[in-house]
Amino acid sequence: MSTDEQILNQLQALQEGQERIEAQIEGLATRVGGIETKVDDLQKGQRLLATKLDVLAQTSEEQHKGIFDTLLGMNDIAHERITRVEKHLNLPPLD
């Protein structure tokens, strides 16, 4: 084999090696793109979950306030009834 043939074979091997490397780089770029998409999806899901948790917390707070207000109202009604019974029976107030 002549020197020219050896150089030609080496150049061909280098070119094939370069093509394999470029294919691997493209494959890695595709994988990175897929990972970036998954990260974006996870971040969107995380933001949606945070929003839902905020809404749930506000709803719970509103529900607790509603329950508390209801209990206060029931307490006021009970106090009024006790006061009426005390007056009716001529009992001194318990304060």
Which descriptors would you attach to this protein?
91% helix; 95 residues; mainly alpha; 1 helix
Q: Return the structural class.
A: mainly alpha
Largest sheet: none
Q: Strand portion, in percent?
A: under 5%
Estimate percent helicity. over 70%
Secondary-structure element string = H
Q: Give the strand tally.
A: 0
The pLDDT mean sits at 89
Determine the N-to-C terminus distance.
Answer: 116 Å
**What is the global morphology?**
rod-shaped
Distinct helical segment count: 1
**Low-pLDDT segments:** none
Output the radius of gyration.
39 Å
Would you mind describing this structure in some detail?
By secondary structure, the protein is an all-alpha fold. It is rod-shaped and about 130 Å long. The N and C termini lie far apart (116 Å). 0% of the residues are buried. The protein contains one helix and no strands. The mean pLDDT is 89. The protein has one helix at 3-88.
What's the SSE blueprint?
Layout: H1 3-88
Question: What's the gist of this structure?
Answer:
The protein has 95 residues and is mostly helical. The protein has one helix spanning 3-88.
